[in-house]
From TrEMBL:
General function of this protein: Catalyzes the Claisen rearrangement of chorismate to prephenate and the decarboxylation/dehydration of prephenate to phenylpyruvate.
Domain (Prephenate dehydratase) ranges: 109-289
GO cellular component: cytoplasm
Domain (Chorismate mutase) ranges: 2-94
Native species: Vibrio agarilyticus
Protein name per Swiss-Prot or TrEMBL: Bifunctional chorismate mutase/prephenate dehydratase
């Protein structure tokens, strides 16, 4: 006699039980990740071990296929997320040891652009949630107000978008870094999911006005070019754009923003996936009045600003110094020096720890070659690159 089929309610109950077990196992795994970090304090081993990660993934893929009939891509995607979380947990633990003054600060005042629901607000919450830090949120109307709020001591940190994979560098922020006394102490890359939101779901042909920040306008330019007769209006942030649409209460008006943020303002999605690029990410930096100490066991980035002479080949000479010391440059951005026509300041992001011997020697040489050089910060790199394995 065959077993009686489970009812839908029974299946859902079983799924709930399995989900609870998964949560328990993930919690146990996280606890063990911290124990791994503690052992690395004694051995001074780096947080990441690429060989170990590759071996782990290969074993998981093999077992998943042979024992549980699970797809290799499914296993890889799932454990990339788990490994990334483990790495960030261990980095956070080691950073707390390197900066004991932060352990006693479970509450932080954070300044960011826009109101609740802006991308800068979402980035702030994401960054500090990893550190189990509660926030006092200080929304600002301009990027300059963010830096001034931190410089004056009214905020402990500021969160600023620095570049986007679609629209490129955010020049206003780079220009602020040229004059600020603040240091970069962290970074975060946030997926940007632009959506058209409004008071109700309507046809695109019925839209007359669209509100947003200038950056989403650029990042969704291809979609916007197909809208006929629609007036584009700018706001201080995507959150302010959504607040404006909610206040107007008109069906022919919409905003560009995050769908989840739109719900905070009682708005509903009209159309999603409107960005030029499907992989649309914004990199944010976290700034503070004091620099942080970065554990030597953690992958670090160092950001410099420098100006060179006007002689031919001056910039090339500085870049050759980096190559000679084996320092990888991930970003080079030039901005005009205010008040000095035709002169430029260069912003350089390096995959290097400031305290490393090769970096210190490179800084000495660069100081001799440049007219001006300043370290904007050395901070943990939180762009966790997935471990690569071949999928047969």
């Amino acid at each position: 006699m065959s077993e009686q089929a489970l009812s839908l309610d029974e299946i859902r109950l079983r799924l709930n039980e399995l989900d609870d077990k998964l949560l328990q196992l993930l919690s146990e795994r996280r606890s063990l990740s911290i124990e791994v970090a503690k052992s690395k304090v004694e051995t001074a081993k780096p947080v990441r071990d690429a060989t170990r990660e590759q071996q782990l993934l290969v074993k998981l893929i093999t077992n998943g296929r042979e024992k549980y009939q699970l797809d290799a891509q499914y296993i890889t995607k799932l454990f990339h997320t788990i490994i990334e979380d483990s790495v960030l947990l261990q980095q956070s633990y080691l950073q707390n040891l390197a900066n004991p003054q932060h352990i006693r600060k479970p509450l932080a005042r954070v300044a960011f652009l826009g109101s609740k629901g802006s991308y800068s607000h979402l980035a702030s919450r994401e960054y500090f949630s990893r550190r189990n830090t509660e926030l006092i949120e200080l929304n600002c109307e301009r990027f300059k107000e963010v830096t001034q709020t931190v410089e004056s001591g009214h905020a402990d940190y500021g969160v600023l978008p620095i570049e986007n994979t679609s629209s490129g560098s955010i020049n206003e922020v780079y220009d602020l870094l040229q004059h600020t006394t603040l240091y970069i102490v962290g970074e975060l890359t946030l997926p940007i999911e632009h959506c058209l939101v409004g008071t109700q779901d309507i046809r695109l042909e019925a839209l007359t006005t669209l509100y947003s920040h200038p950056q989403p306008h650029q990042q969704c330019s291809e979609f916007l070019s197909r809208l006929k007769g629609v007036t584009l209006k700018t706001c201080a942030s995507t959150a302010d754009a959504m607040k404006k649409v909610k206040a107007l209460g008109r069906s022919d008006v919409a905003a560009i923003g995050n769908a989840s943020s739109g719900k905070l303002y009682g708005l509903q999605p009209i159309q999603g996936n409107i960005a030029n690029q499907t992989e649309n990410h914004t990199r944010f930096i976290v700034v503070a009045r004091k620099a942080v100490e970065v554990s030597p066991q953690i992958p670090a980035k160092t950001t410099l600003i420098m100006s060179t002479s006007q002689e031919a080949g001056s910039l090339v000479e500085t870049l050759l110094v980096l190559r000679r010391y084996g320092i990888n440059m991930t970003k080079l951005e030039s901005r005009p020096i205010m008040g000095n026509p035709w002169e430029e300041m260069f912003y350089v992001d390096l995959e290097a720890h400031l305290a490393a011997d090769n970096m210190q020697e490179a800084i000495l040489e660069l100081t001799k070659l440049t007219k001006h050089l300043k370290v904007l910060g050395c901070y943990p790199s939180e762009n966790i690159k997935p471990t690569q394995v071949k999928l047969n």
